[in-house]
Amino acid sequence: MPPSRLILWAVLILGTPSPWVTDVGAQDVPTPEQQAQFLVRAFGFDRALVDRGALRIAVLYVEEPAEAEPMRSALEAVGSPGVQGLPVTAVAVRFESVATLLEGFEEEGVTAVYIPGTLAPALSSIQQVTRARGLVSLSGGRRLGEQGVAMGVYMSGSGPRLIVNLRSLQIEGADISAEVLGISEIIR
Predict the structure, then answer these.
(1) How many CB atoms lie within 10 A of CB 166?
(2) How confident is the model over 1-14, as a mean pLDDT?
(3) Which of 175, 170, 171, 180 minimizes the C-alpha distance to 49?
(4) pLDDT tens sequence across 39-87
């Protein structure tokens, strides 16, 4: 078989080699609605939320705002009654670099950041911003929680489950009550 055909077969079988297209741990990611229910409810038990003044979640995307729309609209729908008497809103913010991320977060008044699995290769860059600015990082899937995202939701055998990275949660300034931690998978 000619080398060009081998490469074509490899791409067809393995998929595209671009790290931006790969969705790390996608098989264990609940629907946007399930994720939103768990994540917004968890903020109801964040003793530091009132100090933030609102819950404004940036949903990151790479190419088009439409990538963020299912999660953004799910967060707004679940959060429409508010959390701890505070409004909940979600906005789509494009990830190009740390500089543009900082600019987008300041413009939007963000207090939390939803990181999709497609941005797993850029997680350390995004965490520089979330940790420096005290923005709580959120995700779907277990792997990103293991890699340092503060709170995530993944599918276990019995249904959706909250995963909390305790170290990241503390660095990013959230103070989730023991009630939520007791029913979550904890990463230390």
Answers:
(1) 14
(2) 36
(3) 175
(4) 999 999 999 999 988 899 999 999 999 999 999 999 999 999 999 999 9
Say if CB 122 and CB 101 are below 8 A apart: no
CB 40 within 8 A of CB 88: yes
How far is the C-alpha of 127 from the C-alpha of 144, rounded, in Å?
A: 11
Query: pLDDT at residue 13 above 70?
Result: no
Q: Which residues contact 110 (CB under 8 A, 6 or more apart)?
A: 56, 57, 58, 91, 93, 104, 135
Kindly state the helix (H) or strand (E) to which residue 168 belongs, with its residue range.
Answer: helix 166-171
Q: How far is CA 103 from CA 129, 172, 176, in A?
A: 11, 18, 28
**Domains observed in the chain:** 28-187 (3.40.50.2300)
Q: What is the pTM of this model?
A: 0.85
CB 74 within 8 A of CB 36: yes
Tokens of 46: 């964040």
Rounded CA-CA distance 90/93 in Å is 10
| Residue 97 to residue 5: CA distance in whole angstroms | 36
What's the gap between Cα 69 and its chain centre? 13
